[in-house]
């Protein structure tokens, strides 16, 4: 079968206005818990879209590491491609592609740097090898070989020995302060359910149904 003929119906359920919580974070929390209960692999994976100073968009998968009324948090090398984009243009979007349950969540907002204290707390909760890898990798820079990367990793192991691995100055995180959040539920005949929460001036939320 040709790729343009690949298709299936979405029949797992629907989404009605009466199903929705008043706050998008509470709605996200409910959906995330339901996804976790399905044993979906990597439910915290999200695609982060950013735009550079020349208007070129890019995307990559990152892991959600916290969420609350303030926004959605993730961590990264602060000299990476994504971080450079954010420093130039903090407007980003996140996509949670929960296709096995025929759902998507899109977050639109502004990325703000997390405090060093927040980054320090999370960094030291990571496995030691991940901490060492943060030191070894000059994320997004060209590198001559895999051997060179592994050599740097061994150098970091020797450098820090059995002692605490400090937080690198070039490593931290961002919180995406959500201004709009869309919830998408697949339906038969491509008549999908879509609802978007939009933040109002008083920080309340307006909810609208969108055409599929």
TrEMBL record:
GO terms for molecular function: FMN binding; pyridoxamine phosphate oxidase activity. It comes from the Bacteria. Its cofactor is FMN. GO terms for biological process: pyridoxine biosynthetic process. Keywords: Flavoprotein, FMN, Oxidoreductase, Pyridoxine biosynthesis. Pathway: Cofactor metabolism; pyridoxal 5'-phosphate salvage; pyridoxal 5'-phosphate from pyridoxine 5'-phosphate: step 1/1; Cofactor metabolism; pyridoxal 5'-phosphate salvage; pyridoxal 5'-phosphate from pyridoxamine 5'-phosphate: step 1/1. It holds the Pfam family PNPOx_N. This is Pyridoxine/pyridoxamine 5'-phosphate oxidase. It comes from Microbulbifer aggregans. The gene is pdxH.
